[in-house]
Structure formats: C-alpha cells, structure tokens
TrEMBL record:
GO terms for molecular function: ribosome binding. It is found in: Cell inner membrane. It comes from the Bacteria. GO terms for cellular component: plasma membrane. It is a single-pass membrane protein. Belongs to the ElaB/YgaM/YqjD family. This is DUF883 domain-containing protein. It holds the Pfam family DUF883_C. The chain crosses the membrane at residues 83-101. Keywords: Cell inner membrane, Cell membrane, Membrane, Transmembrane, Transmembrane helix. Residues 12-60, 74-103 form the DUF883 domain. The keyword Transport does not apply. The keyword Secreted does not apply.
C-alpha cells in the first residue's frame, strides 16, 4: 500500500473539516423546525460540534507549541555541543538506514 506524501495531521484536519462542514449543512437543511425533538437534537448536535472544534483547536495549538519548544531545545543543544549533535545525527541516520534496508 503506497504511503501518502501528505502528513497524517493534515489528513486528520481535512477529515475533521469535511465532517464539520457536512454536519453543519445537515443541521441547516433537515428536520421540521416545529418538531420539539428535532429542535433539541439539533441544539445538542450544534453544541457537540462546537465542543469538538474547540478541543481540536486547543489540542492543535498545544501540539504546535510543544513541537516548537522541542525544536528550540534541539537547536540550543546543537549550538552548545555541535560535535555531539553531529554524532547523534549520524547514529540516527545509521539506525534508520539499517531499519529501512531490512525491508
């Protein structure tokens, strides 16, 4: 099975956006507004959609912040100890190369 060149997080974001847009369209176009059960269900669905969007946004911001911190720490480490950084990079490349060669 070929691997997609698109990062996993981007595909998840696209899927969530599609799901969100579809749900919003369904909520706008379906049901009898005079039916009390429909009104309650629509309100619960809208609240759930809002909650999920909020949690996804918060999680995304949190992951971005943590990744940015890790990059800064790695950059600081390589500037403080350049030869150790080169050694770690070479070791990681060797391990990755060996793992890929086993396939």
């Amino acid at each position: 099975m070929p691997l997609s060149s698109q990062p996993y997080e981007t595909r998840v974001d696209d899927d969530l956006t599609l799901l969100s847009d579809t749900l919003e369209e369904i909520l706008r176009s379906s049901g009898d507004p005079a039916d009390q059960k429909y009104v309650e269900l629509k309100a619960r669905a809208e609240q759930a959609l809002h909650d999920v969007k909020s949690r996804v946004s918060t999680a995304s911001d949190n992951y971005y912040f943590r990744a940015k911190q890790a990059v800064y720490r790695a950059d600081d480490y390589v500037h403080e100890k350049p030869w150790q950084g080169v050694g770690i990079g070479a070791a990681a490349g060797l391990v990755l190369g060996l793992l890929l060669a086993r396939r």
